[in-house]
Design brief:
The structure holds two protein chains of two kinds. Chain A is an all-beta fold. In chain A, about 0% of the residues lie in helices and about 55% in strands. Chain A contains no helices and eleven strands. The model of chain A has no long low-confidence stretch (mean pLDDT about 95). Chain B has no helices and eleven strands. In chain B, a hairpin with a 2-residue loop joins β7 and β8. Chain B starts with a strand and ends with a strand. By secondary structure, chain B is mainly β. Classes of the chains: A mainly beta, B mainly beta. The interface between A and B is medium-sized, with 24 and 25 residues.
Chain lengths: ~110, ~120
Amino acid sequence: SQQGEEDPQALSIQEGENATMNCSYKTSINNLQWYRQNSGRGLVHLILIRSNEREKHSGRLRVTLDTSKKSSSLLITASRAADTASYFCATAAGGGNKLTFGTGTQLKVEL
Amino acid sequence: DARVTQTPRHKVTEMGQEVTMRCQPILGHNTVFWYRQTMMQGLELLAYFRNRAPLDDSGMPKDRFSAEMPDATLATLKIQPSEPRDSAVYFCASGLPAGTGGNEQFFGPGTRLTVL
């Protein structure tokens, strides 16, 4: 099964609203990353949060990490139609480069 | 603008044929990953190389799939013989070693494979 499970599976909002996606994982991690995938494209790295960090910001993105609950959330503020995409969390554990990806949240931002 | 490139972008073939997918990682990246993405299974890691050596190919069906890195600028994924259930989008990704600041992965555009 996937290490990361995103919730919700699909989310539809109006432009200008905030979008929140959640990710739960099962084992201890070194870091957690969020990626975006536009339809028909490869994944694009958005943000990385280390296990000793609790919150991180990048532009309109805010990521939180709660290692006690083994969960993370991605908040996109003031969403735009161009934010329409699938969003995946990925966890890194151990000393290697391997990432385990979640099942993704499909976000649709409507005009 | 450094990016991962993959060829071909689309491939339609008949069952039983050999398929070869190629990937050029970003110059200087020494870790390379092959993933398969389907609606049913999501994103699955097939194989993982560091410094051209295979570190993990446990996600790959060994009887028909093979992955190699002939040199630092080329990674290949072969399927022989191909089957309809291999239809998927295959992504290559590259990255820097863990501990160099982060282990973000940079993805190519993918090869969309259809096996008839």
